[in-house]
Amino acid sequence: METLRLRQDVGLIFIVTEELKVHLLAEFQAAADDVQQQIDQFDFRARHALAELQRADLNRAMQARQQIDTEKRRLEAIKLEVQDRKKEIDGLTIGDEYPRGNIEGVVDVKLGEQAQMGVEAIKLQNVGDLHAEADVSEADIVAVMPNQSIDYTFDALGPDQHFAGSVLTINPASTVISGVVDYKVTGSLNNIPGIKPGMTANMTILVATSSNALVVPSSAIVNRDGKKYVRVIDDPKKKTYHEVEVTTGLEADAGLTEIKSGLTEGQSVVTFIKKDLSKKHMSLIDVQNLKKDYTNDGAATAVLHDVNLTVEKGEFVAIMGPSGSGKSTLMHILSFLDRPTAGTYKFENVDTKDFSKDYLAKLRNERIGFVFQSFNLLARTTVLDNVKLPLVYSAKKNHDDLAKKALLDVGLSHRLNYFTNQISGGEKQRVAIARALVCDPAVIFADEPTGNLDSKSGNTVLNILQELNNKGHTIILVTHEMDTANHAKRIIRIRDGSIIGDEKVIKRTIATAGSDLKK
Contact at 8 Å (CB) between 74 and 146? Predict the structure, then answer.
């Protein structure tokens, strides 16, 4: 039986069969279920977004509420439309013609000709309503709302041609790739001429605007005691300045922050204070104007922008930022797992730019300790042998004694001969800390050390890190959680590859030792 034919005035015509009717009913039922799921998940995400906005800006929260209501009405309208189409399909009879318009493609049959079974006659592409999709990080998704304006450029048309669109949908389900959490945003293309499916679009979503804004580099903002300050230059020759308290507004991706009050146009501000190296002072870590780009297929992606920071010996510093902010990349560079694209990194007052791969490996073994979220322990190997592993590559002797002492420091002297698959997650992380300690490193990097642990085990791990810091060990903790960062003495905040805050922890959380911590 003939199941499809072409007609010049409509496009593609399906001849209704029982099989086609069942297929179409299932298709529209699935669409209806999908829309309902979007409505349910959108309600949950909308409530969360409003709560975040209300804490920061009541006016923006009210605007967001209106946008959310509009989006809900749009989704409800789609749901009703899908239900109507389902009723329409349900009313079709066998032999009716069912048109499918707005279709372009390659046709290898003549008008009215019957398509043969199993022979590819038509390649179709629905071009009636093209959309663009983009992945938006968890740090930015809260600010994205339906109907916000979008500015498009297309690689095929060049960077100078801009086109307008708007946000259609925000998928409430996240995707996680290499630890980076993203959400899918779909935008309209408003029938842009010349655009074809599969082209690469560059999407800029306008989430907020400010007219005649006064801005400063984000690195000029000093966070202290819950307030924000900017250092205003008095005399450039004498290098004198004074601090003024400011209130800030929007933050731009270009590393700029809006100043709402406290400054006037034309004032010069300090963005970074370079230490006087003529004085006998040696920071453990000293980073200036650090940049990191990754290149893929000839296209460079900037991950870190002009990062400046110092870490003194004996500090407990938390580097905090959302997924995709650049905090892990910064940690990899500071711990010699990666190299910067530009800038200066001095470790123990020595510039690292000319260090060979072999010497970097030696530094990682002797001067750096690592604690990872996923433990990275050897399976079917005893706790003691796991801790001894870094000593194999060092010049140190008495491996058993050093490993046992490290395990004693983390309360696991009673687990020496246990295999790693016989101990709990919290104990595995403590083994990882002992392994990081065993070579007596200059600094320990802990990358989300409580991420795979329950609250009790996580509290024990943080207690151990605080105790080690009290004994003089330098700890750099990487996290995206404020509760975890508050266990440090200082918090460096990073966002979109730039440091946006560096402040002392005023109300520090002191972790308590777990009942299973035996020393």
Answer: yes
Paired sense of beta strands 299-311 and 285-296, if any: antiparallel
Looking at the structure, do residues 331 and 424 belong to the same domain, yes or no? yes
For residue 118, count CB atoms less than 10 angstroms from its CB and return exposed for 0-12, middle for 13-18, buried for 19 or more.
exposed
Name the phi and psi angles at 51, rounded to 5.
Answer: -60, -40
What confidence tens digit (pLDDT) does each residue in 212-250 have?
Answer: 889 888 778 877 777 888 889 988 787 788 899 999 888
Angle at 103 between CA 99 and CA 105, to 5 degrees: 130
In this structure, are 292 and 413 located in the same domain?
yes
In this predicted structure, what is the pLDDT of residue 502? 87
Nearest to 476 by CA among 311, 304, 343: 311
CA 391 – CA 162 distance, rounded (Å):
58
Taking the CA atoms of 170, 174, 177 and 179 in sequence, report the sign of the dihedral they define: positive
Beta pairing partners, 369: 444
Q: Rounded to whole angstroms, how far apart are CA atoms 340 and 290?
A: 7
CA distances from 206 to 151, 166, 203, 489 (A): 8, 9, 10, 37
How many Cβ atoms sit within 10 Å of the Cβ of residue 264? 9
Is it the case that residue 31 has pLDDT exceeding 50? yes
- Alpha carbon dihedral 277, 280, 283, 289, in 10-degree steps, equals 0
Residues 145 and 242 placed together within one structural domain of the fold: no
Contacts of 70 (CB under 8 A, 6+ apart): 146, 147
What the block records as the tokens of 322 is 């959302």
| CATH code of the domain covering residue 386 | 3.40.50.300
Give the pLDDT confidence score for residue 6 in this predicted structure. Answer: 40
Q: At 378, is the secondary structure helix, strand, or coil? A: coil
- Do the Cβ atoms of 183 and 138 come closer than 8 Å? yes
Q: Give the C-alpha distances (Å, rounded to integers) separating 108 from 9, 111, 128, 329.
A: 18, 10, 22, 52
Q: Which of 444, 450, 468 is nearest to 519 (CA)?
A: 468
Nearest to 108 by CA among 3, 2, 1, 6: 6
Same structural domain, 324 and 431: yes
- Domain enclosing residue 112, as ranges: 4-126
Task: Please report which helix (H) or strand (E) contains residue 38, including its range.
Answer: helix 18-56
Q: What pLDDT, in 10s, does the model give residues 154-167?
A: 877 877 888 888 88
Flag whether pLDDT at 36 surpasses 60. yes
